[in-house]
Every structure is written in C-alpha cells, then in structure tokens.
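Raw record, unedited: DUF1540 domain-containing protein
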Amino acid sequence: MPEVKCSVANCEYWAQGNNCNAKTIMIEVDKHAEVGYDTEFATDFVDHQDRATSVRNTCCHTFEPKKSKSS
C-alpha cells in the first residue's frame, strides 16, 4: 500500500508523522460527500466511478473520529 499522508489529527487512523494507518482508504468526489457509504447501500461504491476536475473536488470518506481514551 502506498504511504498516505493526512493532517486530520482527530481521525482514528491518524498516526505520528501525519500518516494514515487505515487498512482501506475511500476517497470520493465532493458532490457525493454526504453519501453514507456505511449504510446498507455501501456496496454501491464498488462499481461506482466519477471523474474529479481537480484535487479540490475530492474528499476522504475513511475519516472516523478518534475514540476518547477512558481513564
């Protein structure tokens, strides 16, 4: 897997050095940013293809808020 950089430090998959340590990374175009791929229709992503006009038209769906550590 390629090295993936991420500066979203409150993501569960954020690792030291601004690295992403998620097993799978899902990236989508912004027009589908609100689509819930964690719902029953998540399999739609498998055959789903779009074209982005620039890097600014993409977003990461892998983000998961970091779980708080209980004391």
